[in-house]
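The protein record passed on below.

***
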Amino acid sequence: MVATASVAPLHSDDDSAKRRQILEGARAVFLEFGFDGASMGEIARAAGVSKGTLYVYFADKNSLFCEIVEQESLVQGMLSFDFVADRGIEATLQAFGNAYIGLICNPRGASAIRTVMAIAERMPDIGRRYYERVIANTIGRFARYLEGQVAAGALAIEDCELAAAQFMQACQATLFLPFIFQTAEPPSPQRISGVVDSATRMFLAAYRAEPGAGS
């Protein structure tokens, strides 16, 4: 039996504060040295704790990194984006697209993505966890919103999961790949808005329901 990467949660306020302290130290070390270059000793020093204390909370470097991926999932997974059903579709697409690209095209988000990509082949469980909790979760939530708009007669989409992924990829065009491969600086809000507006027009041209359709 393979041991799971996580550890049992600790419930006291002191434990929670210590855990956050360790995670912040570990995040700084992983960002500076990468996964392979990081050591538990360096993480303990950065967090201001002893190695003994560190091992009380985390069994090894893998479990610590998994916990950080879990936190990044909450940040990058668009869990806080509010798909308001009664807001206009165009405004919702634009707001979602801007928020999505703003998250993945910033230094913190890019560092997490690069690190996961670098170790996913050797540690596929981490890659799968990140994909499921960040990318697939975002596509799924967006698809549920689109399904509601299809049911309301505003959109005509056969495969909402596909349409959701298409819109997200269109929002990335000319922005994400140059940034993630470090050939360009983070795009400005104005540049993001321009690309998202274009993606929105393309999406609605393909999927907006014709007036009177289905009546």
User: Anything to note?
Assistant: The domain at 13-58 is CATH 1.10.10.60 (Arc Repressor Mutant, subunit A).
